[in-house]
Amino acid sequence: MSTILAQELVGLLSAQGKRITTVESCTGGLVAGAITAISGSSAVFDYGFVTYSNTAKTRLVHVPQTLIETHGAVSLQVARAMAEGALREAGADIALSITGIAGPTGGSADKPVGMVCFGLSRSGRKGEIITEAKVEQFGAIGRDAVREKSVELALSWALKVLS
Amino acid sequence: MSTILAQELVGLLSAQGKRITTVESCTGGLVAGAITAISGSSAVFDYGFVTYSNTAKTRLVHVPQTLIETHGAVSLQVARAMAEGALREAGADIALSITGIAGPTGGSADKPVGMVCFGLSRSGRKGEIITEAKVEQFGAIGRDAVREKSVELALSWALKVLS
Question: Which residue from A52, A135, B61, B105 lies 20 to 30 Å from A23 (Cα-Cα)?
Answer without folding.
Answer: B105
